[in-house]
């Protein structure tokens, strides 16, 4: 959608490449566009044509599960939004006509030949759509058109197609209707899809009780495909969660796997959650066959449970085949036309699988995503940005130079928004993400009855092009001056809606989003009544806030068009090269005396999978860096960083030897590429005590230093044992997967094996997920490397007193303890955050750190290299463990994102900052004292008279000063007292007031035992949660995305920072009837605004003292720090607090006034 | 609830000459605010509701009654403002109060009366400068000591480090010294002054009924309070709620003045002080002499009056927690300058609100020490001078 609306992106759909001439920097690409038969510019996507179309065609998007008309829209969010006619199904275009029809068609064609353009719908064989179309968008005269594009570079992102599981007859796909592919299941689970998000058996449309997932179908050796498809494991895990959430009737989900490849950030934790929450059963084994049992109308999966050592016949109502990714049919032809190569499977080949992330075999042609082989989404997104960075190298001279031509939509003339609020509400179904749980029409009715609401509507996907168009219509038709979207989280979708507002001249800050998806339907799916009530309240609160929203204007400050790259490893080198190559001044600082980091000798000898010498690769990369014009400073450390995006000021300190004064460098963007440390196994497995126990890094060094055969202590070892997952997937340390160790160990084992050394690898899951790695693994097995699978809870033992003599452990697959004699033990150590550098930059830049200690990306899928701090980007292992190819891709992606900042002369300023009413300001200086960004200053505005003024370019918009200002002179724009008060009031002023607000909801909470038939009138306390935007609100979103169910009695009010939460908010909440108030923010040290949460504590202490004097139980007030990553913790805190409040009973302040007065 | 016409009538607004003396007198207007009592009177007379609501300036009035004293037509502008605020409040227009409305929210919760407040913690509180035991009685007795809300102020304004509780503690200590065991009730509620003056009559009435009953139940014949606002509320605004026997209601300064002969006071060096007449105590209730008698009786204390004192005194510019801006600040700064100009080292006041507002005004990085002066409650001063301390 972003691409579709970008002014510099032209989307040509229904088109294919038919030729390509020229060279990098000056390609001439011929494309042919197939006729759509609907004019894109005219179609309004009203769908009236679909209603009248008599013809039904196949539906490739819904993988044949759902029929569609001959005129259709591929899917709700499609770009362009225009409809399209399927020539194979349309009566006017197909050959399946009766004689009479054919005669009519011929008449039309004759009319056309005579250039009669005025033939009407009546002359057509079937003119229903033409008659129905009010805007005259249907055009059967369209012919294929060809055009030639002159471009500097070409990006290939053609993706993959799924493996045809019919080739593997034993699985019964195509024979048994209830054997479906993962893609078919995905369409069922999709809200707007076939079954509106519910899983059914294709044979009888009933909900299956037992579902079995079969992994690696057509992959890892089956169907002629040796590679691993990377995404299927996590996809099955995710689906197992989704299935159980959508359909509690599904009793059992079993996943048949070989190695669980949960290699990404947080993936292992997700698997654990699927075991706990979805009670997914994992059985290690590949089924031999699937049979149908006609008597019972179910399927039987024949599999060996290789860990349980049993033959199983697992009965299943539905079997899902996790099918492999295969190259697209057209990929080979496209490669031929573009003059690039494909690999042995037919995927587009990378120039060098060890190091090229996005280069194809031809200069100027780049490739990203699953076109090179299966990828997970975060990697695809990073590669896409990387490809964009490289592609820009051939576009010099075409770059956007001025902000005026930038991405801001052609600003329409500002709408007249004067007069009393006229609020429009749109409730989004989000397919069934919302509508599957909540009664959307009821929400619309509720919204329509709220004060100042002039219109309320609902839409299947408010964020889709048609949704946006409808919004535009609503605003115009009803002269709206405030807009409320009840949909998903503002953290992801506010920009989309704001842009739409801006497009039509409605100030974007007059928009309010109500998060009924993440906060209602996703997390209270099991209590739809309670979720509905909550949605009512949230919408009421949103409308109340919207009525007080004010238009804000964005400002601008100049952008320093230069960048700093911190770290001279492969990530830093790549990022600096890419940025400098685009002509931006780049400074690369490296604290050691050489470039290359872990690639530099003597650390790494060969790169997998093709054993390219690391030194050679590095030499080439450094050469490119030097040619790029980047300034490289060795022996240099970053001492301090101040400022903000566009205007950072970096103090560099060249090491003491030179005795130079620290240099100050102004930059606009910063790329962090400080790398990661390796785990130090000291004290474990005899490391440090037994001389022949090495880490994988030390072994690599030995390879570097010894030209031929490996010699240790003057002897050639006869046998070697590798132990994997040392310091990774470790509940006491780093719980994630380090990604690089499996292929590295296999590469090293292969080398040892070739030297005649008997090699054994002790592993937990082999995760060879990079290009060529699975093949390397197969080859290693083929040449005799032994693999022993060890259980997660039992560590192998290294035996021997003076030196390691053997490794003993339990072999899961053999079901017994084994002892493998060895001369050499190699510990494959995982990665961990580099210290103290990570802490140093965390302090300097305030970039959040995740639970694993690595820097946190802004969004794992949407923004994998960006951070929450504008202008600060992540490259390589600084964000989490990854191997060299992925690091290089991410580095280029960071460069691409940095160039987005540097491409403009100015930075846009957030207008939602603090502003001082000088007539109210008492010049007490409180704001000056508390702001660490030095935004407010006392200014002499007339002789002798001072008032605070806030520097908008320094102000981060946390609003802490506003909550401390004694006179109320400071307004935190967009989060004003009035707006927050309105929300608090609306929360309690609802129509359900006084009717036992949540008494209905409590019954389905599983709290009441059968004995207690009467619903507890206090089953749902009123809890107000104040949450900061960056951590706690985001934590709630994380709980939502992960569907972590929790109690529904709280209502959340978002502010930018916990420092904004002033006593007045909390006391007002209690006054209005809150039974409990939770104040939440970022953990100490993680505050997006550095100090806001510390101030929040001071305010909280005041509140607590006053509340104590007032006589409210202290348990009604709570302060919690919840990070963006802690979705689980958010849910736990809510559950715990809710229970606590329930135990306390209703707030004494909620009843009628007490005492003498009550009688009066 | 009286309507606009009734409000105008009862405040004698119709008598207005449109002469503008009120505006010329008004400390807020003199500080430079665009603010005119006259226009409010006129608008009320002409029943121009919109005009009254337009600029939100109703909240700017300090209700200090200075204009009332000067008005040649005896228009009770202060009363009018109170009625107008009530009308505006009932129409749903809540003023945007300083401190995010926290104090008003707090008072409304107290009005609900459904919690057991911690009202007696200060009796053994650590803030007491003199750790002698304070003897009080929770239910019945001859004398009721009305504490007001100083414990809340000290907690809420902790960053200003106020010590308004010390005055409260001093008052009890003085009573004990006089052989009186006052009733200090755990069930006292906010007097409702600020809610009444910001328009919330409903909550005020809840408080009034409860408090009147509470004191009646105690059997007290005398009610003493240290807070000028509480005093005004008790003496004037609670009147319609009294039934049967009404206790005598006095300010702590009046009480001390009456009991001066029984108090044995000693000098603690020589000190020049000045006195701030709280608007409620002075112009609202006409109590000017008793505090001065008490101060005069303190050995070693010399009272130096400020330029504007007694009925002409300028108020602390912060009543009802609803007007706090640069004009209020300027009034406070001028008042502090006046205090300093007397050569006094101590500003004595008879209302805890004055203490808070002057302390807040002194937090000023630009003026620095120029306006700094110690501020204490009158009872503290007397208690400190008690022999045998």
Q: Whole-number radius of gyration of chain A?
A: 32 Å
Major sheet of chain B: 4 strands, parallel
Categorize the overall geometry of chain B. Answer: globular
Percent of residues in β-strands of chain A: 15-25%
How many strand units of chain B?
A: 7
Q: Estimate the strand proportion of chain B.
A: 5-15%
Strand order of the largest sheet of chain A: 10-17-11-12-13
Largest interface: A-B, 50 and 49 residues
Q: Indicate the low-confidence ranges of chain B by residue numbers.
A: none
Mean pLDDT across residues of chain A: 87
For the termini of chain A, the CA-CA separation is: 63 Å
Helix share, percent of chain B: 40-55%
Shape of chain A: globular
Number of helices of chain A: 30
Terminal residue distance of chain B:
52 Å
Spatial arrangement of strands, main beta sheet of chain B: 5-4-6-7
Total count of helical runs of at least 4 residues of chain B: 19
**Portion of residues within helices of chain A:** 25-40%
Low-confidence stretches of chain A: 400-410, 991-1018, 1156-1160
Oligomer: heterodimer
Write the layout of secondary structure elements.
The complex is a heterodimer of chains A (1160) and B (389).
Chain A: H1 2-5, E1 15-23, E2 26-33, H2 48-52, E3 56-57, E4 68-69, E5 71-72, E6 84-85, H3 99-113, H4 128-132, E7 145-151, E8 154-156, E9 160-162, E10 179-181, H5 182-189, E11 210-217, H6 232-246, E12 252-257, H7 267-277, E13 281-284, E14 289-293, E15 298-305, E16 310-316, E17 318-323, E18 325-327, H8 331-338, E19 365-367, H9 377-392, E20 423-428, H10 432-435, H11 440-448, E21 453-459, H12 465-478, E22 482-487, H13 490-503, E23 511-515, H14 517-521, H15 528-547, E24 555-558, E25 563-566, H16 570-581, E26 586-589, E27 606-607, E28 612-613, H17 614-628, E29 631-633, E30 636-644, E31 647-654, E32 663-667, E33 669-672, E34 676-678, E35 693-695, H18 696-705, E36 719-726, H19 741-754, E37 758-763, H20 773-782, E38 786-789, E39 797-799, E40 806-811, E41 816-821, E42 824-829, E43 831-833, H21 837-845, E44 872-874, H22 884-902, E45 906-909, E46 914-916, H23 926-930, E47 936-942, E48 945-950, H24 960-964, E49 970-972, H25 977-988, E50 1023-1028, H26 1032-1041, E51 1050-1055, H27 1063-1072, E52 1076-1081, H28 1092-1110, ...
Parallel strand pairs in A: 8-19, 10-17, 11-12, 11-17, 12-13, 20-21, 20-22, 22-23, 25-26, 25-33, 26-29, 33-44, 35-42, 36-37, 36-42, 37-38, 50-51, 50-52, 52-53
Antiparallel strand pairs in A: 1-2, 2-7, 3-4, 5-6, 9-18, 14-15, 15-16, 24-45, 27-28, 30-31, 31-32, 34-43, 39-40, 40-41, 46-49, 47-48
Chain B: H1 4-10, H2 21-25, H3 27-30, H4 37-45, H5 49-54, H6 66-70, H7 77-90, H8 102-112, E1 143-146, H9 150-156, H10 164-177, H11 193-197, H12 201-218, E2 222-225, H13 228-237, E3 248-251, H14 252-259, E4 271-276, H15 280-284, H16 289-297, E5 301-303, H17 326-341, E6 346-349, H18 352-362, E7 374-377, H19 378-385
Parallel strand pairs in B: 1-2, 2-3, 4-5, 4-6, 6-7
